Amino acid sequence: MTHGYPKNGRVIFHVDMNSFYASVEMAYNPSLKGKPLAIAGNPEERRGIIVTSSYEARAKGVKTTMPLFQARKLCPELVVLKPNFERYRKASKEMFKLMAEITDLVEPVSIDEGYLDITECGSQGTPLEIANRLQQRLLNELDLPSSIGIAPNKFLAKMASDMKKPLGITVLRKRELNKVLWPLDVAEMHGVGAKTKEKLNQLSIVTIGDLAKADDSQLRRVLGINGVRLIQRANGEDERLVDPDSVFDFKSVGNSETLRQDTIDDTVLFSLLRKLSVKVAMRLKRKGYVGETVQLMIRYHDRKTITRSITVHRPIAEVDDIYGLAIHLFETHWNYDPIRLLGITVQGLVEKQNYQEQLDLFHYKEHLKKEEIQTVIDNLTSKYGYNPFEHKTQISTPHPTSEEPTTSFQKDFLDDYTKDH
Amino acid sequence: MKFIIQRELLLESLQHVMKAISPRVAVPILTGIKIEALPTGIKLTGSDSDISIESFIPKEEDGLVHVEDIETGSIVVQAKYFPEIIRKLPLKTVEISTDDNYQMTVVSGGSEFHLNGQDAMEYPQLPVLHTDNSFEIKHDVMKEMIKQTVFAVSTVETRPILTGVNMKIDNGEMTFVATDSHRLASRSVKLAEDFVHIQFNNIVIPGKSLAELNKIIDESDDSLTISVADNQILFQTKNLYFLSRLLDGKYPETDRLIPEVSKTSVKVKTKTLLQAIDRASLLAKENRNNVVKLETRDNALQISSNTPEVGQVTEDVITDHIDGEQLKISFSAKYMIDALRIIEEDNVIVHFTGAMRPFILYPENNDHILQLILPVRTY
């Protein structure tokens, strides 16, 4: 066993870039370094709002979401820039690339933060060494400061990365919880906002320590299932895995695979397409999504890569649908050169219950028949309390929702960060 | 070849034949315009091999002289430059001549252009139509027929036959049908007595051809002669010859897909409904199918649209009458707007047959027009 890794249990990093937008601007224009800098929605307008600011500006009391005129009052020499999303997107892509060099298990959370599971990275050094190296590379190669939290799970890693900014590396061990975490105000806890804090305070829960010892059923009554989760987190428990594609959910679900050797054998290629279709369909089903676009990726022996897609106006989620369209794309676009890798992605995802389907003149009658069958199934389901025709029960996965307020832009950047696995 | 011509007339003719010319064609010479000086006048030809258009400028018409000093001959010139040159020339007349090296000289006032051309012999021969199957229809009726159907053709090539308009003639009545499989537009007209013997079924004219034809023929009660033969259709006016390829394949049988019974019938002011749908669609633009919802009330239709990220809208449209079952249905605002726009009558009748089935619209007291729309299924 390598030093610094637990016998059983995981080692999770939370990497949080320090005032990311402002840091990227300073990297582009080093003369800004050391100056109070703010990025604001609309600098010309007095009522523009601060999106982020440098530490120099924060020292003067400038805060995120503060109106511009107020910030200028606190810090008259404040340099204000408009957000330049193209730059941030590029920087973000580079920084996730550095993380991906450590492990495949990188979960981007937003444009400027992500989790890494380095449990299996013992060969690269102790967790502290890996964290140091990553932080240095981010700083030297991209000129971007970061804070890294190291802990046995995501929640603690996130709390740890918050503790030392900028350029901190903080290890949070479970046995230190009572000293490090519990004395903090509950509002410091990730996942506790103003409203929740108020409710907790009414129950005389003021510190994270109070929360850790709080009564399960009482909190469940006040905060629902989230209350129970908060108690677990306050006790340092968090089972969530680092899921590299948790944020891809809303956009696409895809799998790809490199062949053992470059091939033109179509039985091998077709069976790989089948296998990928099965995987993608399974993941779609688990997530409860349907899409309208199937994309095929072909990488040839010389690494030349093409992607081709087809969009249909019906909900795609079943293996046969995906496979059928993938085969169609494959037969249309394969140039008979030896193939190294194939990938299938379903895009344009929506939750099944939000799907609207434009009916078709030539097929609506078939649709009506299916509808009748569905009505029978629904009736039987309500009679017996379960669907007698369904083999597997729906696996409910917790949604990667709202722990983190992410804007659509923050998620967009993930399109750049696609990798094969 | 040599002639002197009225610039405006030449320009108008050029614009007509330009409709058939595409910069991306398999045969390079088709990127050019063929110009022929005949003893009787000037003939221009443009073609992309799907559509071919000939426009003729007679030497004299109604006592007016259009072309002078004709020396017969022909040439093909680049369509990219020639029309723009003619448009910008200073005088009302243009003198055009060619030499033995296929050089064209264009003179107007003090400006003189020399253009490289090509031998007109290289230009493909347009097919000559041999047929007795000709009939006539007024320009303005033809334009109406096109406008009221062509918008419904499919714009995707997944089912190529649906990119065309199906022309049927039976019992002295001509019908145009177009569908992209989500909506259908149909319009029919009685032909003149002379043409009762004409019978066509599976004629499918590319939607693009009809749209171009509509742009070229003028709004008048002149007659358009239509002839069909061997996968080609020809539309002819006095000075215009518009030839289009027909689409291969069988047009799907659509008559039996049009519901005959109605479960809910509504009569409503066309404009009022159109405007309400248009307003509701403002908030529906974000959602994929531009969906609005319609719900029957006692004497009104409730039109609504809800896009969670944007907001929601509700509006009641008072009806003249509603008969039959209560109904809640969702459909594409765009299809509804397209359908209502071509109805000129004050009142429109809508027949619904259930939330998952097609519904039809037609103008009150006019069974020559029928619009059909498939609803959107919401889960």
Automatic annotation (TrEMBL), chain A:
Principal place of residence: cytoplasm
Enzyme class, spelled out: transferase
Residue(s) at site: Substrate discrimination: Y21
Cofactor(s) this protein cannot do without: Mg(2+)
Active site residues per record: E113
Entries under InterPro entries matching the protein: DNA/RNA_pol_sf (IPR043502), DNA_pol_Y-fam_lit_finger_sf (IPR036775), DNA_pol_Y-fam_little_finger (IPR017961), DNA_polymerase-Y (IPR050116), DNApol_IV (IPR022880), PolY_HhH_motif (IPR024728), Rev_trsase/Diguanyl_cyclase (IPR043128), UmuC (IPR001126)
EC numbers on record: 2.7.7.7
An MF annotation (GO) of this entry: damaged DNA binding
UniProt KW ATP-binding keyword: no
Biased composition regions of type Low complexity, renumbered to the chain: 396-408
Binding locations of Mg(2+): D16, D112
Region feature (Disordered): 391-421
Stated role: Poorly processive, error-prone DNA polymerase involved in untargeted mutagenesis. Copies undamaged DNA at stalled replication forks, which arise in vivo from mismatched or misaligned primer ends. These misaligned primers can be extended by PolIV. Exhibits no 3'-5' exonuclease (proofreading) activity. May be involved in translesional synthesis, in conjunction with the beta clamp from PolIII.
Protein name: DNA polymerase IV
Organism annotation: Halolactibacillus alkaliphilus
Gene that this sequence comes from: dinB1
TrEMBL record, chain B:
Subcellular location: Cytoplasm
Domain DNA polymerase III beta sliding clamp central: 136-253
SMART domains: POL3Bc
InterPro entries listed in its UniProt record: DNA_clamp_sf, DNA_polIII_beta, DNA_polIII_beta_C, DNA_polIII_beta_cen, DNA_polIII_beta_N
Keywords: Cytoplasm, DNA replication, DNA-binding, DNA-directed DNA polymerase, Nucleotidyltransferase, Transferase
DNA polymerase III beta sliding clamp N-terminal domain boundaries: 1-127
UniProt main location, coarse: cytoplasm
DNA polymerase III beta sliding clamp C-terminal domain sequence ranges: 256-377
CDD domains: beta_clamp (cd00140)
Record-linked Gene3D superfamilies: 3.70.10.10, DNA Polymerase III, subunit A, domain 2
Single GO MF descriptor: DNA-directed DNA polymerase activity
Family: Belongs to the beta sliding clamp family.
Subunit structure: Forms a ring-shaped head-to-tail homodimer around DNA.
Known role: Confers DNA tethering and processivity to DNA polymerases and other proteins. Acts as a clamp, forming a ring around DNA (a reaction catalyzed by the clamp-loading complex) which diffuses in an ATP-independent manner freely and bidirectionally along dsDNA. Initially characterized for its ability to contact the catalytic subunit of DNA polymerase III (Pol III), a complex, multichain enzyme responsible for most of the replicative synthesis in bacteria; Pol III exhibits 3'-5' exonuclease proofreading activity.
Protein name listed in UniProt: Beta sliding clamp
Organism whose genome encodes this protein: Halolactibacillus alkaliphilus
Taxonomic lineage: Bacteria, Bacillati, Bacillota, Bacilli, Bacillales
Encoding gene, per UniProt annotation: dnaN
